[in-house]
Task: inverse folding
C-alpha cells in the first residue's frame, strides 16, 4: 500500500519542478516539491519497516522495469529525509530570478533521477539513471555559477573523473547482466576471476562516484561550488546512491567474495576515513572542509562494508549482517548531519557573504537557531554521544572488534589497524569540528557586518535536521532492526530503542541522553547564578585583541607538525629589507594534497603529452586521411591473411 | 539485586564521586616525598574544591552560552562515566549500560566542551592547550582502541562487567592482557595528564596541555572542572586495575583488592613522574605508536597461535 504515497510524492516533485519554472508559481512549486519529498521519505521508511516490495523485481533483460525493495526503500527514505529540508531551505535561499528558477527545476530533475537509480530494476534503466545522476548536478553548477571560469573548469574535472571512473560501473553492470546476476546472487563462482573482476570494476566505478580515496579528486572540488541545497543533496544523497550500488554488487550480486577482497575494501575505507579528515583539517573554506568530511564519512561506511565482506567470508552471517547495518546506519546518519551542515553553511554565507573560516565568528549569538542547529550537527559528525554519529561509529567499532575474534592473522590485524584508524579519525573529526564551531559560531565577530538570524524556512530546515540527529542518536535501535533484516542471506535482530548486540555491550541512547541532561541541569542549578561582574577575558594578563585572534591554521599547527613527515606542508617566508632594516615579513603556508600532486598531476600531464602527439595524426589534409584508410585496409587484409581472425 | 551488587554500586558512587579527588592528591603527595619535599597532604584537592566552591564564578565579556554550559557538561559527562565504569563484575546498571566504547564517547564529549569554551573566550593560551590536547587525543584514542581490542580478544565483549569477569586470574589469566597493559598504561598517562605527556604542576602557560583551557574559569565552574580531572583519574585507573592488572574472581575480593590496586597505581604514577621528564610534545605520538604496535604484535601472536 506504500506504493501510492511514493508515486504521489514523485509526481508532486515532478509537477512542483515544472511549476517552479514560472515566476508566479515558483513558491507553490517548491512547496509542492517539499510535500512530495516528505511523502517519498515516509513511504520509503514505511516500506522498509514493513519489509514489503513494490513493483517489478530485478531482471537481466534489457527492457525498462521499475520497483522498490527494502534496500531501495531505505535510500528513498533518506532521499526524502534530506530533500524535504533542502527544498524548504531553497524557498528563501534561491532567488525567484530566471537563474534561481532554472536551478530549482534542475534540482527537481536531480531528485527524480536519484529515485530512478534507486528504483531501476534492469541494467539499462540503472545505467541511464547513473549517467544522468552525474550530469544533472553539473548542469546545476553551470547554471548557478554562470560566467565563473574556475567553476566551469571544476565541472569539467568532475565530469572527466567521474566518467573515467564510471567505466568501472558499466563494466561491472554489463558483466553482471551477461552472467544473469543482475539482481540474483549464486550464479557466479566464488573466487573466480570473473567474480573478482566484477567486484574490482564495481569498487572503482562506484567508488569514484562515492568519493572513496584515492578516487575522490572530484568531490572536494565539485561539492563546494554548488548552491547549498544542491551541495546537501550531493553529499547527503548522491554519493549515498553510489554506496547503494556498491552494497548491491559487493554484498549481494557477486556472492561471497574472497577474504583478501574484503581487506582491500577495508583498506580503501581506512584511507578515505583518515585521509579525508586530515585534509579537511587544513582547509579554511567551510564548504570545502565539509566536502572533505564527506570523504571521511564515506570511508567509515566503506570500513563497515569491508568488515561485512570479511565476516561473511569467515562464515559469521550474524555479525556480517550487523556490519552491513552499521554501514547503512552511518549512511543515513551522515545524510542527515551533512545536509544540516551544508544548509547551515549556506545560511551563514547568505548572512555574512563569506565562507572563509577566519572571517566568520560569533554567529551563535547573532543567529541562535541556525547556529544552535549547526552546533548539534557539528557534535553529531564529531561522533559525540548521545547524537546519531556516535551510534553508527559505535556500531562500526563493534564490528571491527569482531574481525580479530573471527578472523585469521591477516584480516584480524587488518581489523585491529582499521579500528585504531577509525578511533583516530573520530578524534581528528572532533579536532576539526571544534575548530569549525569555534571559528564560525563562538568568540568575537571576525568579519565585517552585523548578520542576523536566517529567514524562518532556512532556520526551520536546519532545525528539523538537528532534531533528526537527536532522534537517530537517542533511538538508533528503531532503524537498526530493519537494517539487519536487509542482509540478503537473511538475518534478524530484535527491535529496541537502544542499540544492542548479542554477547557484547550496548548503547542505551535514551538512558545516556536523559542522564546527561539531568546531570547537567542539576550541576547548573548547584552552580547558582553568583558571578563576578563581566570583565574582559584574562588571557594571563594580555588583552584579547583582534590581531591576537587564533586562526584555523594556528589551531591545527600541532597536528601539522606531528604529521610533517607524511603531509609535507610548505611554507614560504619572504622578508623585505631596506638598508638592513626589515620592512615587511610575509608568511605563506599550505598543505598540498598529496594524492592530487603525486598521482593525478603526473597522470594528467602524461595524458596531455600523449594527446599532443596524437594530435599530429590530425593533419587536416585529405591525402593523409586517404592514406590512413588504405593503410588500415592493408593491415586488416594482412591480419586476415595470416589467420588472426579465425 | 543481591548484597554484592549493592555494595559494588555503593563503592562505585562513593569512590567515583567523593573519593576521586584523593587519587591526584595521593600522587602529588607521594611525588613530593619521593623528591624529598614535604609537599601537600593527600587531601589538598578537597581543600582546593572547598575554596573554589565559596568563590564567585566569572563572566567573561563577549562569551556565549557555550562558555557558561561547558563546566557543567564536562562534569556531567564525567559523572556519567563514573556511573558507567563498574568496580566489580557485579554492578548495578544505572541506565547507561557498561560499554567501554560509550565511555570513550563520554570522554570525547568532555573534551569537546572544554575546547569549545576556549574558543568562546578566545584566550590564546587556552586554545593552545585545547589544540594540543585534541591533537594528542587522536593518537591516544587510536592506542586506547587497540588495547581494548586486546582485552576484547581475551574476553569477547566490550561490556565492562563481562570484561572484568572474563579477565579474572591470580597471575595474568592470559599473557595477552599483560601485553595489552603496555599501551593502556600509556593511555593512562595521557588521560590523567601526567609526565611524560603533560606536567600537572606546571604554571607556565606555554607548556600547559590539560590545565590551559581552564585558565578563564573561576569559582564553582573551576571546581567542576577540577573534579572532572579527578574523576578521569578514577575512571581510567579503575579500568586499569580491574581489567589489565591481575585481579581475583568473586565480588567481595574484587571490591576488597580495589583500594590496594588503586594505591599501587597512584604510587606507580608518582614514581613515573619522578623518574621521567616531560617529553617534547611532538614526541608523544611516537610513544603512543610504540604502545599501539606492542598491542598489534600481541594480537598477531594470539591469532598465529603463539600467545
Result:
Amino acid at each position: 500500500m506504500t506504493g501510492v504515497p511514493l508515486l504521489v510524492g514523485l509526481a508532486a516533485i515532478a509537477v512542483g519542478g515544472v511549476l517552479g519554472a514560472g515566476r508566479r508559481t515558483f513558491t507553490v512549486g517548491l512547496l509542492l516539491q517539499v510535500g512530495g519529498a516528505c511523502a517519498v521519505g515516509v513511504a520509503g521508511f514505511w516500506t522498509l519497516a514493513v519489509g514489503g516490495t513494490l513493483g517489478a523485481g530485478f531482471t537481466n533483460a534489457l527492457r525498462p522495469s521499475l520497483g522498490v525493495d527494502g534496500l531501495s526503500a531505505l535510500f528513498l527514505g533518506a532521499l526524502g529525509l534530506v530533500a524535504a529540508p533542502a527544498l524548504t531551505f531553497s524557498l528563501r535561499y534561491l532567488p525567484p530570478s530566471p537563474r534561481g528558477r532554472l536551478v530549482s527545476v534542475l534540482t527537481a530533475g536531480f531528485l527524480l533521477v536519484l529515485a530512478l537509480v534507486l528504483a531501476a530494476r534492469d541494467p539499462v534503466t540503472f545505467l541511464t539513471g547513473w549517467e544522468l545522476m552525474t550530469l544533472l548536478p553539473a548542469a546545476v553548477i553551470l547554471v548557478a555559477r554562470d560566467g565563473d571560469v574556475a567553476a566551469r573548469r571544476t565541472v569539467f574535472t568532475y565530469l572527466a573523473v567521474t566518467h573515467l571512473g564510471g567505466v568501472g560501473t558499466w563494466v561491472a553492470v554489463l558483466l553482471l547482466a551477461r552472467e544473469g546476476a543482475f539482481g540474483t546472487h549464486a550464479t557466479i563462482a566464488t573466487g573466480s576471476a570473473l567474480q573478482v573482476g566484477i567486484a574490482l570494476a564495481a569498487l572503482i566505478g562506484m567508488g569514484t562516484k562515492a568519493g572513496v580515496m584515492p578516487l575522490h579528486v572530484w568531490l572536494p572540488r565539485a561539492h563546494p561550488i554548488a548552491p547549498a541545497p544542491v551541495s546537501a543533496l550531493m553529499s547527503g544523497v548522491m554519493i549515498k546512491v553510489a554506496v547503494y550500488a556498491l552494497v548491491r554488487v559487493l554484498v549481494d550480486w557477486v556472492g561471497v567474495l574472497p577474504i583478501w577482497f574484503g581487506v582491500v575494501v577495508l583498506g580503501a575505507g581506512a584511507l578515505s576515513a583518515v585521509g579525508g579528515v586530515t585534509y579537511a583539517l587544513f582547509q579554511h573554506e567551510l564548504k570545502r572542509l565539509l566536502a572533505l568530511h564527506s570523504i571521511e564519512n564515506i570511508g567509515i561506511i566503506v570500513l563497515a562494508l569491508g568488515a561485512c565482506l570479511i565476516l561473511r567470508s569467515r562464515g559469521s552471517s550474524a555479525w556480517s549482517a550487523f556490519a552491513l547495518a552499521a554501514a547503512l546506519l552511518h549512511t543515513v546518519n551522515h545524510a542527515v548531519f551533512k545536509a544540516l551542515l551544508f544548509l547551515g553553511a549556506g545560511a551563514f554565507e547568505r548572512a555574512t557573504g563569506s565562507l572563509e573560516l577566519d572571517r566568520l565568528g560569533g554567529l551563535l549569538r547573532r543567529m541562535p537557531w541556525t547556529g544552535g542547529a549547526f552546533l548539534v550537527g557539528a557534535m553529531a559528525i564529531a561522533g559525540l554521544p548521545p547524537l546519531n554519529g556516535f551510534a553508527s561509529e559505535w556500531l562500526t567499532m563493534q564490528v571491527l572488534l569482531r574481525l580479530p575474534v573471527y578472523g585469521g592473522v591477516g584480516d584480524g590485524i587488518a581489523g585491529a589497524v582499521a579500528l585504531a584508524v577509525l578511533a583516530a579519525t573520530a578524534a581528528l573529526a572532533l579536532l576539526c569540528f571544534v575548530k569549525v564551531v569555534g571559528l564560525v559560531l563562538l568568540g568575537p565577530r571576525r568579519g565585517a557586518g552585523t548578520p542576523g538570524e536566517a529567514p524562518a524556512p532556512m532556520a526551520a530546515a536546519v532545525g528539523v535536521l538537528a532534531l533528526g540527529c537527536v532522534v537517530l542518536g537517542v533511538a538508533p535501535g528503531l532503524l537498526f532492526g530493519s537494517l539487519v533484516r536487509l542482509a540478503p542471506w537473511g538475518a534478524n535482530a530484535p527491535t529496541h530503542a537502544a542499540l544492542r548486540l548479542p554477547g557484547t555491550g550496548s548503547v542505551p541512547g535514551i538512558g545516556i541522553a536523559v542522564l546527561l541532561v539531568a546531570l547537567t541541569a542539576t550541576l547548573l542549578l548547584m552552580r547558582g547564578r553568583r558571578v563576578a561582574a563581566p570583565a574582559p577575558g584574562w588571557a594571563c594578563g594580555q588583552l584579547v585583541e583582534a590581531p591576537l585572534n587564533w586562526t584555523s591554521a594556528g589551531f591545527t599547527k600541532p597536528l601539522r607538525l606531528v604529521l610533517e613527515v607524511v603531509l609535507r606542508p610548505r611554507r614560504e617566508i619572504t622578508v623585505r629589507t631596506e638598508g638592513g632594516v626589515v620592512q615587511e615579513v610575509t608568511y605563506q603556508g599550505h598543505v598540498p594534497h598529496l594524492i592530487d600532486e603525486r598521482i593525478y598531476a603526473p597522470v594528467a600531464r602524461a595524458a596531455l603529452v600523449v594527446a599532443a602527439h596524437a594530435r599530429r595524426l590530425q593533419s587536416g589534409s585529405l591525402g593523409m586521411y586517404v592514406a590512413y584508410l588504405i593503410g588500415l585496409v592493408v593491415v586488416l587484409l594482412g591480419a586476415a591473411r595470416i589467420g588472426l581472425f579465425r | 539485586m543481591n548484597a554484592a551488587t549493592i555494595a559494588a554500586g555503593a563503592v562505585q558512587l562513593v569512590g567515583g564521586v567523593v573519593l576521586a579527588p584523593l587519587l591526584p592528591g595521593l600522587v602529588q603527595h607521594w611525588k613530593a616525598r619521593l623528591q624529598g619535599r614535604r609537599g601537600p597532604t593527600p587531601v589538598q584537592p578537597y581543600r582546593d574544591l572547598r575554596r573554589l566552591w565559596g568563590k564567585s564564578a566569572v563572566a567573561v565579556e563577549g562569551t556565549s552560552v557555550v562558555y557558561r554550559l561547558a563546566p557543567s557538561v564536562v562534569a556531567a559527562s564525567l559523572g556519567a562515566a563514573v556511573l558507567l565504569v563498574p568496580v566489580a563484575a557485579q554492578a548495578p546498571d544505572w541506565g547507561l549500560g557498561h560499554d567501554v566504547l560509550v565511555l570513550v564517547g563520554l570522554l570525547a564529549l568532555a573534551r569537546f566542551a572544554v575546547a569549545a569554551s576556549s574558543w568562546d573566550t578566545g584566550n590564546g593560551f587556552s586554545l593552545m592547550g585545547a589544540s594540543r590536547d585534541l591533537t594528542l587525543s587522536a593518537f591516544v584514542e587510536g592506542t586506547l582502541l587497540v588495547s581494548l581490542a586486546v582485552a576484547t580478544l581475551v574476553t569477547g565483549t566490550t561490556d565492562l562487567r563481562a570484561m572484568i569477569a572474563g579477565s579474572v586470574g591470580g597471575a595474568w589469566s592470559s599473557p595477552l592482557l599483560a601485553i595489552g597493559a603496555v599501551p593502556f598504561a600509556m593511555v593512562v598517562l595521557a588521560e590523567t595528564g601526567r609526565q611524560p605527556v603533560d606536567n600537572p604542576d606546571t604554571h607556565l602557560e606555554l607548556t600547559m596541555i590539560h590545565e590551559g583551557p581552564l585558565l578563564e574559569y573561576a569559582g564553582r565552574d573551576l571546581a567542576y572542572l577540577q573534579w572532572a580531572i579527578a574523576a578521569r583519574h578514577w575512571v581510567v585507573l579503575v579500568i586499569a586495575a580491574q581489567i589489565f592488572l591481575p585481579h581475583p574472581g568473586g565480588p567481595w575480593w574484587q571490591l576488597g583488592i580495589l583500594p590496594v590496586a588503586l594505591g599501587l597505581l597512584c604510587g606507580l604514577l608518582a614514581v613515573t613522574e619522578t623518574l621521567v621528564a616531560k617529553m617534547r610534545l611532538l614526541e608523544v605520538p611516537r610513544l603512543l605508536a610504540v604502545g599501539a604496535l606492542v598491542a598489534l604484535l600481541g594480537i598477531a601472536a594470539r591469532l598465529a597461535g603463539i600467545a
Observations:
- Chain B has a mean pLDDT of 89.
- Chain B has eleven helices and no strands.
- The CA atoms of residues 16 and 82 of chain B lie 6 Å apart.
